[in-house]
Amino acid sequence: MASGKRQERTLLLPSRQDWEVWKQTGETAWSLASTAVPLREVGDGILPAEVALGLPTRMVLAVPVWVNSLDPEVMRSAVALQLERMGLETGEERPAARISLGRVCQEENRQLVLVRLLQEEDTVAELPLLPSQIELGMAWRELPPNEVIVWEELGQLCLGLTRGGELAYFQILSTHYLDAGFVGEVRSVILQATLAGWVKELRGLQLWMEVPPDLVQELRRRLEMPVEQGEPPAPKTQLRSSTLVPSVVAQARTKRSQRRKIKAAVMAAAAVYLVLLGLLFTRWLLVQSELRDLSERVEALGPEVASLLETRSLVTEVYPVFDQEEAPLELLLRLYQTRPSTAIRFLDGQLENGSITLSGEANSFALASSFDRRLQESDLFWAWDWNNPTPSIDPRTNAAKFQISGRSPLAARMP
């Protein structure tokens, strides 16, 4: 779907001393935005993708060539052969970006081709932006048919010949003034073009510059042809780009392509990194969720684990004292649980036929008495018949040694 906003384009054309800046929106006619702008300053506020560059005449050499064929492949070969005969570089030796072919007219089975060869490039070396379209500046203007055109461009006089509405020939004039030398050079160019068949029935000469009226009359008399004075026409609405590409532009395009490739590689690497980071983050979230579930389960098992650890500790203490084959383990554990402190140690014991005999020692007489009291008040052993002598004191360690014995009320019923 087309965008509602039409893109604005910029066209740069060489003028008398500097450059003209033209603007166009959509398919409308071009409007002149500014004149006499130095090339190094034309890039202000202009996007490279919107710019068309018209090359100055002095950068391009015009070579009209007749080709006795209408086939494009034959045309290119014939042009290369004629350029070689003229002592110019052939198509094979000259890069494609430095040669452009344009058909001027057709006569029966032959056609006139204007070969344009890119020459010196210092003129656009200061170009601060990268144009998307490039062509000879004069070729983008609306040209009058069958006329001799003279204009001033970057401080030099230029001459062009048209056939129909196409540019058939152009060159830089050696003179800088409209004097006798100018008249002689114009006559020489017209004679050469007429004899070679490049032009036919030239209607007159147009001066696209400011010229006093008396000088116009003098030129009419000397050239013996109509001479009119006016301003250069506006550019064509539709611009066709040529294959001419100055090396400074080619280098800039290569650098831009490399930057785009590097940017694409960086973006691809960043995308892969973000995907991997997303996968790792997702995995981290899943692991964190599993760890939270595991932590909750461990926390829920905490009391059971503590009970098991306590039971294990008691079992570890009970096993060396009682015969594990005869003593009920649960009863022994309950007996151990009645101790008021781990400072009470069991040394020997026996449990059989519902009777308990147990000897041990405590760190003090009070601890031994407390154990005796707790034993007789416990939920399991309060109904037993206990015979617990008073603990004896060891004079060397002050430890209280005790010996207790008890009988279950159910012992009398046992066989």
Describe what is shown at a glance.
32% of the residues lie in helices and 27% in strands. It contains seven helices and 18 strands.
Number of helices: 7
- Share of helix, binned: 25-40%
Q: State the major sheet.
A: 5 strands, mixed
- Write the H/E string, N to C: EEEEEHEEEEEEHEHEHHHEEHEEE
- Terminal-residue CA separation: 105 Å
With strands numbered from the N-terminus, the spatial order across the biggest sheet is: 3-2-1-4-8
Shape label? rod-shaped
Strand content: 25-35%
Radius of gyration: 55 Å
Residue-averaged pLDDT, rounded?
82
Structural class: alpha+beta
Overall number of strands: 18
Low-confidence stretches: none
Walkthrough of the structure:
The chain is rod-shaped, with a radius of gyration of 55 Å. Strand 1 and strand 2 form a beta hairpin. With 415 residues, the chain is an alpha+beta fold. The protein has a five-stranded mixed beta sheet with strand order 3-2-1-4-8, with no helix packed on it. A five-stranded mixed beta sheet has the order 11-10-9-12-13, covered by helices on one side. Strands 14, 15, 16, 17 and 18 form a five-stranded antiparallel beta sheet that branches. The protein is built from seven helices and 18 strands. It starts with 7 loop residues before the first strand and ends in an 8-residue tail after the last strand. The longest helix has 54 residues, at 247-300. The mean pLDDT is 82.
Question: Could you name the key traits of this structure?
Answer:
single chain; 415 residues; alpha+beta; 5-stranded mixed sheet; 18 strands; 32% helix; rod-shaped
